[in-house]
Amino acid sequence: MSKSEAAPGVSPSWAVNVIHTCMDLQRGEEMLIVVDEPLSYVRDALQAEAIKASPGGLWSYTFPNAMRPFSEYPPRLLALATQVDVIVLFLASLEPAKEQLAWVAGREAIRKGKARFGAGAYIDQSILDNELNADYQQIATLTQSLANWLGGRSAVHITTSLGTDLHLSIAGREWMTDTGILRGRGVYGNLPAGEVYVAPVEDSAEGVLVIDKSLPGLALSEPVRLVFEKGRVVRIEGGAGASFLEEAIEEAQRKPGGEGARVIAEFGIGTNPSARLQGNIMTDEKAAGTIHVALGRNDFLGGKNIAPTHIDGVVSQPTVWVDGKMLLDKGRHRLQE
């Protein structure tokens, strides 16, 4: 870990967006920037822009390649993270099967402190130039309007032209927003951002979900068909993507809490018009016109299921009905119509 004293210079626009629009770093606040080794240049750009805000302290930590995959965050890093006001964590890579438990545990430990905390994985230059250059004020407006409309509703029905026909319950579950505008003590959000999401009732999913865009680390060349009964996936079909997902679930089932790996965990709606469908789950799930459904752990989303993994799948051009009212029509929002 190092305390930064670099001279300020001309920063790229994505760095300005992250430091000021997203994190709202203020004079006198303490900030921690965490990256992995391939993103050292991102650390440097964020530091240079952060210094312009005259922070009270500016710290950085870089995960060396030799530490990967990591099984936990270094204790000194977590200790510092509980003391600062603002944290940004960007990783170029993340191995879900080997590092996700540490990723989630570290995130939850950090959230116990006072910091507002923005984090993203699978970050590369194209994401910096596109998704992290988005108009997050506009995204926040759309995302919050969706959350307001969805609050207190119960029944969701999802269809697509590829065969999705899935019913699930959201009764009694609180919708969460990921707007990219992080304000207040202990606030956490993804960067890039842009979604509204909920933990469905765990035994409620019935029917078929066809994932046609991506799974973690995998752009799909062939759709993956999942059959749900009483909230659990009982059958997976669809070539290489299906094999990839089945193997990830089977590996999770061999770990403590693995019996929850097949349970529905999340239903989310993308709200970021700058997000591209490119096989990167961290950006794909934010793309406007898409939904995503996850399996596995959801206690950190307000649900009750415990599992070693949380695996998202992205679906394009969905039609979504909520309590009998159409919310999305082949991916197009209907709220304003």
Q: Could you describe the 3D structure shown?
A:
The chain is an alpha+beta fold and 337 residues long. The chain has two domains: 2-131, Thermophilic metalloprotease-like (3-Layer(aba) Sandwich); 135-333, no CATH class. 25% of the residues lie in helices and 30% in strands. A hairpin with a 2-residue loop joins strand 20 (325-329) and strand 21 (332-333). Helix 1 packs across helix 2 (40-51). It is globular.
Summarize the entry for a quick read:
By secondary structure, the chain is an alpha+beta fold.
Instruction: Find the structural class using helix and strand composition.
Output: alpha+beta
Helix content bin:
10-25%
User: First CA to last CA: what distance?
Assistant: 52 Å
Please compute the radius of gyration using only Cα atoms. 20 Å
Detail the poorly predicted runs.
none
* Shape descriptor: globular
Question: Describe the biggest sheet?
Answer: 8 strands, antiparallel
